[in-house]
């Protein structure tokens, strides 16, 4: 197959590029809004450009890693977030090709007390969550056999993310405060990329919505403690309440995703979050 990867300069897109070398069965075309290395320029908000690219390169499958993920900025500029997270997704869906699309835990309210299943009620409370949910809905309407993977707390050696920020702050400061009343599961982008290749190379195509993060549960405070411990950083980490941090945009207090459907459908085991973190930190410290 010829597989189009959008958002290739981001965390997940870069991990897809790295892992694609282990999957030579298919041909991959990496695209983003900005050209970089082997990345082709493609603006997925331009419907005609999308149609032309897919037709010209005889694309069989699209993996959409592109997204507007700045939660605070989205509140101030929801039209732009909607353009990328929803309308651009519809452009991809209208190509008529199979699609794997990445979504988010932010489609839920964050008030749950048990892991969210794929068919639980959605109730986004942010512009980011609303636009990502609309993207899911537009995709399902135009391409009912699409695969949607919801994930959370993504990090990697690439781009800006929580792990790299905590390492930097831990080296710069004697102490930092990190919220302990927001619970979720970190996701190593390399493992999410592995999950995508698992979907691609399954014997059968299994459309629908799935949840994927690493295994386990922690708070941002717990996550930071492990990041520093595995990075050899000596910095005092203080647990603080979300109210003390004064977020510009509300964050989910509980955003654990139930991954049972993905594990059962594809017959896989998912790495525990601390083991995944160890692999990432080793790369960062190389």
Brief summary:
By secondary structure, the protein is of the alpha/beta class.
Compile the SSE list and pairings.
Blueprint: E1 2-6, H1 11-20, E2 27-32, E3 40-41, H2 47-56, E4 61-64, H3 71-76, H4 78-93, E5 98-104, H5 127-142, E6 147-151, E7 154-155, H6 162-172, E8 175-179, E9 183-184, E10 187-188, H7 189-200, E11 208-211, E12 218-219, H8 220-231, E13 236-240, H9 242-245, H10 260-266, H11 273-284
Parallel strand pairs: 1-2, 1-4, 2-3, 4-5, 5-6, 6-11, 7-10, 8-13
Antiparallel strand pairs: 9-12
Helix pairs in contact: 1-7, 4-5, 6-8, 8-11
Note down, in words, how this protein is organized.
The structure is a single chain. Helix 5 links the parallel strand 5 (98-104) and strand 6 (147-151). It contains eleven helices and 13 strands. Strands 3-2-1-4-5-6-11 form a seven-stranded parallel sheet, with helices on both faces. The chain has a two-stranded parallel sheet with strand order 7-10. A two-stranded parallel ribbon has the order 8-13. Helix 1 crosses helix 7 (189-200), helix 4 (78-93) packs parallel to helix 5 and helix 8 (220-231) crosses helix 11. The model has no long low-confidence stretch (mean pLDDT 96). It has helices spanning 11-20, 47-56, 71-76, 78-93, 127-142, 162-172, 189-200, 220-231, 242-245, 260-266, 273-284; strands at 2-6, 27-32, 40-41, 61-64, 98-104, 147-151, 154-155, 175-179, 183-184, 187-188, 208-211, 218-219, 236-240. The protein is α/β, with parallel strands linked by helices. The chain has a single domain (2-161, 186-215, 255-271), classed as NAD(P)-binding Rossmann-like Domain (Rossmann fold). The two termini are 35 Å apart.
